[in-house]
Design a protein that fits this description.
three-stranded antiparallel beta sheet, Rossmann fold, five-stranded parallel beta sheet
Amino acid sequence: MFVLDTLTHRLKRGCETMDYPKGAPAALPDRHGGSLRVESSKCAERCSECAGVCPTQAIMPRAQKGVTLDLGRCIFCAACVEACPEGAITQTGDHRMAARTRADLVLGEEGREEVRLAPALDAKLRSLLGRSLKLRVVSAGGCGAEEADLNVLGTIGWDIGRFGIQFVASPRHADGLVITGPVSRGMELALKKTWDAVPDPKIAIAVGSSAVSGVPFTGNPEVLAGASSVVPVDLYIPGWPPHPLTILDGLLRLLGRLGNDRFTPPARPPAA
């Protein structure tokens, strides 16, 4: 009877896994503003209000009018959005932030207002990986926030396994590493050994602004400047921490399963 009751209960609840990427993505929480946009054309001459309030020096004034904003150093506190008198920096509500290079995360360069989203791996590497991707997670001095959101991807609502993506216990069973944290000196050798244990060809993914650039510990002698200080990184996923949807979007783009489509923020449910 217990087995029948369990099956009946599951049938009544139906499918609880989100439709994404076939359907529209879920709305980000109210306190999560998503990616940022920089419109240097709106900046006032010699204004540096936003740079002055940035706690991680992610914003730098340009020689010309405007600023650059490095999402790889950003902790998404939105202090710059509030401080900008001209509204040149805004929150977009866009969950998509993953990029293939560090330069692609720097807004305001070459007139680019938003992130240059990650293209897929080359066809040869994708053919070698097939339709599955096994990843070993390495917490290299992380605070636990990025690790928690990675764990969320394995829950029933997300079910990352339906895409053939799994987190594995051994680097010898992995196609690559997912690295969190700024890479402390105590984890430097462990990360190197773990990377060496992954069979070729392999990939490395930096999850969270700490893994991307080392913030907010940049400059501390006991901390390196993120994952790329130790291993070659193929995908950078900024955020502090990044939303699970941001992580999933980056992984699917790397595998060539998403296009560079236009983003329309989903409607938020009315406040209770």
